[in-house]
Amino acid sequence: MTAAAPEPEAFGTQVPDVDGVWFQLVAEEGASTPYGQYHREDDLVWAEFYAGGTLRSGRLVGRLQPDGSIRGAYCLLTADGELVSGECRSIPEYDVRGNIRITDHFRRSDGTRGVSYIEQIPAPIREV
């Protein structure tokens, strides 16, 4: 049994809770981009990513840090069949509209590094 993680406070401001929130990769207008849903239970954070752009599927698992950031590891399968894995530090913040925007600082297993951004979206309507 794990103890509940204290709610993080970053610089005296409320840190967004990503549990149940849907996000989409920020890209050029009209581009097909991956989307996914984050979950949180205490300090455990996980996400599933769905097709869009060059992504076929992906997963993330991480741990909520005291400052509200998320330290995680991810594995992605591209539409071309390539496996991509790495680590990231994700920083969730509220944007001016009150939606959550996450800045992801990532380092892939092949050594490449970068920063990507994902923004909160309404829950997609998925066909059954």
Structure description:
Helices cover 0% and strands 57% of the residues. The protein has strands spanning 9-10, 13-14, 22-25, 35-41, 44-52, 55-64, 70-78, 83-94, 100-108, 113-121. The strands form 2 sheets. It has an 8-stranded antiparallel beta barrel with strand order 3-4-5-6-7-8-9-10. A hairpin with a 2-residue loop joins β4 (35-41) and β5.
In a nutshell, what does this entry contain?
The protein is mostly beta strands.
Q: What attributes does this structure have?
A:
two-stranded antiparallel sheet, 8-stranded antiparallel β-barrel, single chain, mainly beta, disordered N terminus, 128 residues, 10 strands
Shape: globular
Described by strand count, sense and barrel closure, the largest sheet is: 8 strands, antiparallel, barrel
Please give the share of residues in helix: under 10%
Instruction: Please provide the count of β strands.
Output: 10
Can you list the strand order of the major beta sheet? 3-4-5-6-7-8-9-10
Q: Whole-number radius of gyration? A: 15 Å
- Summarize model confidence as the mean pLDDT: 89
Decide which structural class fits the backbone: mainly beta
> Which segments are poorly predicted (pLDDT under 50) over 5 or more consecutive residues?
1-6
SSE succession: EEEEEEEEEE
SS element count, helices: 0
* Strand-residue proportion: over 45%
- Give the terminus-to-terminus CA distance: 35 Å
